[in-house]
Write a structure and sequence with these properties.
alpha/beta, four-stranded antiparallel β-sheet
């Protein structure tokens, strides 16, 4: 079965041009002096606005949550039992399921992926004056978590063939103040975490794996999250498994600096509470707990992780088959260390402007897509923390992250898609890429 798409109409193109022109003035008008104070390269690197939904909504959203067929029964039981808070059996059941799935002795459920990162850094005793190496091409939560505990994020460029920094790139950024490295396995492509692990051991650095986008992803026969000292994960609705919002911490260690790690994480996630004295606190911490109902919702999905990874591999195979002959786009790299089962399927275009035109045309037929991350060193919100001069200074040039951030985007990737859906989306992308080569026709 094939699907035919009309070229973007003249009206749509005029609307698109008007949107781009308007965008050039939106940020200066909205931010005023704050916009002008941004470094010039940051101002010039900001992405174009998101394409609007088609008039009848998204036919193919970029993500849909996977809900286990056993979730309803699990949540209903928790409600019937009155197990709704963070101090109830469903949370303990989730932690036990995670330990079993990831084959680690320590697992702590928490409120979201950001809080999981904060807990990893707090339990590792990273703090003010310390530097933490982070990838440039990742979600801003990674840098926010580092700054939340008073440390400084040091942003490292990535490799074009893996979307992640290599051990050599991390090594070039190490200073006497470096205390930790965070790898993110961006878009489900595993980083060379084995080489980074060796680097961290040589320099006595803590290794944190952010597996928000790589739950279940295989690296040389192991599952991501098993090689770092700690792993942090998000259970947001677009992740492989979800509790709506939520997250968890894993560790291959049962003890850390002489303390039982599970007890330490339990305390740090709950305002520093300790069992012996209910309302006496010996340290300051936040509230990073997960509710019992959220745990009951996601726990049945943990055992489905292998099945969901198999589905991601099938989606990737279909996309590669149907997009192999599309000109002037580049398909995402295959994993160098395991099966080709990315969290989302990505493509790269020639320019930022071309990417926007393609995404706009796909939105017109109801297909949602998503730009790659704006690299961290170009994020306006991070400039105050990254600047060391009174006058704004252009951020460093990280060419690979900037190239990917300018040209990459990803397609709908979730468990609900069938082969005919992938073919439809692929044909829409092909049509959008070739739109300029065809004469404008009448639908």
């Amino acid at each position: 079965q094939s699907f035919l798409f009309c070229p973007v109409s003249q009206r749509q193109r005029r609307s698109h041009v008007a949107m781009v022109d308007m965008h050039k003035q939106i940020l200066p008008d909205r931010l005023g002096k704050q916009f002008q104070q941004l470094p010039k390269r940051v101002r010039e690197s900001l992405p174009l606005p998101e394409p609007p939904q088609s008039s009848d909504g998204w036919h193919y959203p970029v993500a849909q949550p996977y809900i286990s067929p056993r979730a309803s029964k699990s949540v209903t039981k928790a409600i019937d039992d009155g197990f709704i808070s963070s101090a109830t059996q469903p949370v303990r059941d989730l932690q036990r399921a995670l330990k079993r799935q990831f084959q680690v002795p320590t697992a702590k459920a928490c409120s979201n992926g950001y809080s999981a990162l904060v807990l990893c850094l707090k339990v590792a005793e990273i703090g003010p004056g310390d530097e933490v190496l982070v990838p440039a091409l990742t979600m801003v939560a990674v840098a926010n978590a580092v700054m939340a505990i008073g440390a400084k994020p040091v942003i490292v460029d990535v490799c074009l063939d893996s979307y992640n920094p290599s051990a050599e790139q991390f090594q070039s950024a190490i200073t006497t103040r470096t205390r930790a490295v965070i790898v993110t396995h961006t878009y489900g492509l595993p980083a060379d975490v084995g080489s980074v692990r060796k680097l961290c051991d040589e320099h006595d650095l803590v290794l944190v794996e952010d597996i928000a986008e790589s739950i279940g992803t295989v690296y040389k026969g192991q599952i991501t999250g098993q090689l770092g000292d700690f792993a942090a994960a998000s259970l947001y609705a677009n992740k492989l498994i979800t509790s709506g919002d939520g997250g968890f911490v894993l560790s291959k260690h049962s003890e850390w600096k002489g303390m039982v790690l599970q007890e330490r994480l339990d305390s740090l996630a709950n305002h520093g509470f300790v069992p012996t004295f209910h309302f006496m606190h010996f340290e300051q911490s936040g509230n990073y707990k997960m509710a019992g109902l959220a745990a009951a919702f996601v726990t049945p999905a943990v055992q489905d992780i292998p099945k969901l990874i198999e589905n991601r591999a099938q989606l990737a195979a279909w996309y590669r088959r149907y997009l192999s002959d599309v000109p002037r786009i580049k398909l995402m790299p295959t994993s160098l260390y395991g099966s080709d089962a990315p969290w989302v399927f990505c493509v790269e275009t020639e320019t930022r402007e071309k990417r926007h035109e393609i995404r706009w045309a796909m939105a017109e037929v109801g297909i949602e897509t998503r730009d790659f991350f704006l690299p961290l060193h170009l994020q306006p919100a991070l400039q105050p923390a990254l600047q060391s001069e009174e006058e704004p200074v252009d951020p460093p040039i990280l060419p690979n992250a900037e190239r990917l951030g300018d040209t990459g985007f990803y397609l709908p990737t979730h468990y609900s898609l069938k082969e005919t859906d992938v073919l439809f989306i692929s044909d829409a992308l092909r049509s959008a890429v070739k739109a300029k080569e065809r004469k404008v026709g009448v639908c």
